[in-house]
Design a protein that fits this description.
By secondary structure, the protein is of the alpha+beta class. The chain has eight helices and twelve strands. The protein has a single domain, classed as Ribosomal Protein S5, domain 2 (2-Layer Sandwich), CATH 3.30.230.10. The strands form two sheets. Strands 1, 2, 3, 4, 5, 6, 8 and 12 form an eight-stranded mixed beta sheet that branches. Strands 9-10-7-11 form a four-stranded antiparallel beta sheet, covered by helices on one side. β9 and β10 form a beta hairpin.
Length: 290
């Protein structure tokens, strides 16, 4: 039996440069893996099956884990199966990349279970077929994302903590598409905020400011409760931004202060809040569960 963790992520920066001819948006973003993680267990089996806890957490047939497994089967031209169990810890559809991380971890775990000779680049090519964020989770850590976010350049991982809050807000089925649809040309930027953040990371400076997210300009249209949540963050001395396309939010915290701040925020906002740390890159073996 093989058990791996599937870490969450936040976008330290997320800028939209414009709309492309293919209908996608050109972005520049810095992605950062977190200590918060789902867990996947893999066992050899004749059939390909997936179970999820808590029960009903996500429709099995729509889960990207199965899509990743079937894609890898086709690519490797094998009929081997696997019994996969997914324990969800990352809030679903919250902007923390849980589904994308689960898919990438499925590729990593099944590569090992099935004894496949595939390197990280080959897995990232497959991952890009599953979603724009999935390639990042093949190696995790800290990375500059360009194009749709799938063109990745590894960056040094800063020491840091963050406080993440998960509001009780409904998630539209096409949440990310809806958020992009709210953007207007005046919300597009030139990527300079991401370039400045990249330079700070490369020079080893503490990452204590400069967090931006293009969706912050339109978030209240999609999530009216965001204004109150933002006020709750600010009441405990934190400056929040969206996690991806939301509705979760996060703010950077000074080292050693995240846990206490998360407790105060949960009380103030009346929602789930947790402290997380930044996680560096991992090898092709994936992140072993302790």
């Amino acid at each position: 039996m093989l058990r791996l963790l599937a870490p969450a992520k936040v976008n330290l920066t997320f800028e939209v440069l414009g709309r492309r001819d293919d209908g996608y948006h050109e972005v520049r973003t810095i992605l950062q893996a977190l200590s918060l993680a789902d867990a996947l267990t893999f066992e050899a089996s004749d059939d390909l099956t997936l179970t999820v806890e808590p029960e009903g957490a996500a429709p099995i047939e729509e889960n990207l884990v199965l899509a990743a497994a079937r894609l890898l089967q086709r690519e490797a031209s094998i009929s081997a199966g696997a019994a996969i169990h997914l324990a969800k810890r990352i809030p679903m559809a919250g902007g923390l990349g849980g589904g994308s991380s689960d898919a990438a971890t499925a590729l990593l775990g099944l590569r090992r279970l099935w004894g496949l000779d595939m390197d990280a680049d080959a897995l990232r090519e497959l991952a890009a077929q599953l979603g724009s964020d999935v390639p990042f989770f093949v190696s995790g850590g800290t990375a500059l994302g360009e194009g749709r976010g799938e063109r990745l350049t590894s960056l040094p991982t800063p020491r840091g903590e963050a406080v993440v809050a998960v509001p009780d807000a409904s998630r539209p089925r096409d949440k990310t598409g809806q958020m992009y649809g709210l953007l207007k040309p005046e919300h597009y930027t030139d990527g300079s905020a991401t370039a400045e953040a990249e330079q700070r990371l490369r020079s080893g400076e503490p990452f204590s400011e400069g967090v931006v997210n293009a969706f912050d300009a339109v978030v209240v249209q999609a999530y009216p409760s965001y204004a109150a949540m933002r006020a709750a963050f600010e009441s405990v001395g934190l400056r929040p931004v969206l996690c991806g396309a939301g509705p979760s939010m996060f703010a950077l915290a000074d080292e050693g202060e995240g846990f206490a701040l998360a407790g105060r925020l949960a009380t103030q906002a009346g929602c789930s809040a947790l402290a997380v740390t930044f996680k560096g890159p991992w090898e092709l073996e994936g992140v072993a569960a302790e």
